[in-house]
Amino acid sequence: MRQEEKKTIHAAITGAVLFLLIQIFRTPLGNIEDKDLLSALYLIIGCCNVAFGFAIFAQGWLFFANRLSQARLYTSALFLGVCIFDFLHTLSFVGIPAISSYINAEQSLWLLTFSRLASALGILFIFGRGDKPVAAAGKNKVFRTSSVLILGALALFIFGDMVATRMSGYSQVDGMQHVMNLAVLFIYLLAVGIIVYPGQTEKSASLLIIIRSLIFFALGQVFLMNLLSVGEMDYLFGMLSSGAAYYLLLKGVYRLTIEEPFQENEEAEARINYLAYHDDLTGLPNRRRLMQRVEEMLLQSERDKSRGFTALVIMNINHFKNINDSLGHYAGDLLLQLVAKRIGNEAKANEELYSMGADEFAFLMTDRTGVENCLIRAGELLRLFDTPVQLESGEYHISLSLGMSIYPGDGDTAEQLIQNADTAVHNAKDQGVEIRRYIPAMQMKAKERLKLENDLRRALERDEFYLVYQPQVQLETEEIVGMEALLRWNHPKRGLVSPVDFIPIAEESGLIVPIGEWVLKTACRQNKMWQNAGYRPICVSINLSMRQFLQPNLAGKIGVILQDIGLDPCYVDLEITESMTLDKETAFDQLNRLKRLGVFISIDDFGTGYSSLHYLKNMPIDRLKIDRSFVSEVMEDSNNAAIVSTITSMAHHLKLKVTAEGVENQEQLQFLRQQHCHEGQGYLFSKPIKAAEFETFFLKPSLGMPS
User: Fold this and answer.
1) What is the CA radius of gyration of the chain?
2) In this protein, which residues make up the domain named EAL (predicted)?
3) 463 with 368, same domain?
4) Which helix (H) or strand (E) holds 484?
């Protein structure tokens, strides 16, 4: 582009200097007396101009696809007429008998003037506005119109002898021709200005070539209307400048309407191919390219049995969602780029890194000496992240989980190797380990998990869920003061499915939201039924999942449910976990909305999370539930005893109630009483039981009701 800009500036300077030099040396040039030589030169240059004009026409007529450039089509039609006019002018001006008998020298100058006027107006019209594609069907119409106009103009000059004779007899004819030549010059310069405007828009190299052609057209026009002296030398230099303009226009139109679109198509195709096989964020080859590469590797291994082991490692960034949620997607994208760069910089010969999308990468290792060598290299990749990653908000320690499949042995196709490595990395995350190599049992577990998720989706519709209730007891009096509603699933074929097996699947799949809403409605409806039956009202505790808690309309939903059932909110205790309060602003806002309903709020499994005491004292909560892991070994482990004692003491100072989970024997009960723990829940009092059993064993009639 810069090169074409320089050429355009040089063309303007060269034209101006050429005109000045010719004016300076006008006298010696004018002394050339060999008129035959001048006529021969004029004829040669004129025929070259005609050839260039015909080439412009042929370029548009012969090379025309189904849809192509309107600019090229119109330019082609324009210069069909221009080259015919120039050809007639050249032959008549030099006195070729067959032509000069019909068109004299003065009339030939009018032909030249009209030719230049047509080219100036045409170029202004065509290149002064944006180009667009035109259908091939319009091609014939354009050339038919052009042919009619050309024949009409020729008829005017060839068969209009009377008109031409009358015009040559007026003294004003020369002045009129001079005015028209001035108009042509003005139109050329106007076309330059319109094409260049606005100046801040970068012009394509092709348009700069067309601007150079207009400069030479304008220069040729200056020679033809030189006020100092118009002689044969001026006409000769004018035709020479026009020839340069024709050549540049031919080149510019070709570049603008054929070469550049072709290059743009090639670049667009290359860009599409790049995006199809690369990740736009990291620039790494993507899963599609990995599939191709592994297939190529498998074919090479079949041909060359001496090749070593090939290992495919799928890497997953642990807790990436937390970074995205807490620091924003910009930080998440930056982290992915930094991870890709750190691993990519360490890749050796026969090692390739790929992006699998989201927070997963693939690392392909070929020609390895053995399985142990592959595992050692995978461990080296993990140690790359012993040092923290620097983001804009600070340094962050991250870790990866790796799953590996090895050829031969763990798959015979690219799809199998990738799928098995992916299965292994998810197994590593589930087991909380860094590296897992694929084993067939993992695939069975993954299939089992998928089937369980499908069954879980239909469990609500099939009414396979039910609730059990575990009593909450005041430790001093052992009086029932509440109950916790717990979800159970009675699978038609598997029987009872443990919550440990299906709750994580429900949370990952999002099914926990409709299931949680069902639990809330069912527990509240059951509590209201017991109140209507005359039993003493007690509070029912209901667990909220993270997905439920983050719903912006959660308080509104719960309010509608309680209103429809007619249950007073003071008999509902919503249990959340410490991890739900990590985003302090969102958690405080949600808790305040829930408290305005009038429900109680408890923090479940307290002591296993990362709650800040500073935030805890300001949270709108009513109760802490000490996790069962501390209570179960409170008599054997002094550390657990100290933790329970500290939590209880802290809760008293914060004026919060304390409930101990997992109370299983009298020693634990006695210890908790000594710590002034308010309530307990566990097998010492009762295991979770169905509603009918709970009603029979634990509910008491309200005061004033017969027993």
Assistant:
1) 45
2) 449-702
3) no
4) strand 479-491
- Quote the tokens at residue 6: 């320089």
Q: Say whether pTM exceeds 0.85.
A: no
* Cα dihedral 30/36/42/45 (nearest 10): -120
**Alpha-helix runs per DSSP H in 159-283:** 161-168, 172-196, 205-224, 232-254, 260-277
Same domain, yes or no, for 242 and 291?
no
- Please give the Cα distance from 98 to 101 (Å, whole number): 6
Contact 77, 146 (CB under 8 A): yes
Over residues 621-680, the pLDDT tens digits come to: 999 998 888 888 888 878 888 888 888 888 888 888 999 999 999 999 999 999 999 999
Q: Are residues 528 and 672 in the same domain?
A: yes
Q: Which of 178, 262, 255 is nearest to 211 (CA)?
A: 255
Q: Are residues 463 and 433 in the same domain?
A: no
CA atoms within 13 A on the CB side of 348: 8
Distance separating alpha carbons of residues 203 and 194, to the nearest angstrom: 12
Which neighbouring-strand residues pair with 572? Answer: 540
Task: Return d(Cα 592, Cα 603) in angstroms, integer.
Answer: 14
Are 659 and 528 members of one domain? yes
What whole-number distance in Å separates Cα of residue 573 and Cα of residue 472? 12
Tokens 């801040």 sit on residue: 200
CB atoms under 10 Å from CB of 82, counted, come to 25
CATH number of the domain within which 499 lies: 3.20.20.450
Instruction: Please tell me whether residues 292 and 191 are part of one structural domain.
Output: no
Mean of per-residue pLDDT scores for the chain: 83
User: Is it the case that residue 355 has pLDDT exceeding 70?
Assistant: yes
418 shares its domain with 484: no
Name the token pair of 243.
């020839």
Distance (Å, rounded) from C-alpha 42 to C-alpha 61?
28
Same domain, 87 and 183: yes
The two structure tokens encoding residue 439: 């084993």
Report percent pLDDT > 90 for the chain: 33
Question: Is 703 strand, coil or helix?
Answer: coil
Q: For the chain, what is the total number of helices (H) and then of strands (E)?
A: 28, 19
d(C-alpha 207, C-alpha 241), whole Å: 19
On whether the CB atoms of residues 341 and 353 are closer than 8 A, the answer is: no
Domain of 430, in residue numbers: 287-438
Q: What is the DSSP string of 307-368?
A: --EEEEEEEEETTHHHHHHHH-HHHHHHHHHHHHHHHHHH--TTEEEEEEETTEEEEEEEEE
- Closest alpha carbon to 256 in 197, 195, 201, 215: 195
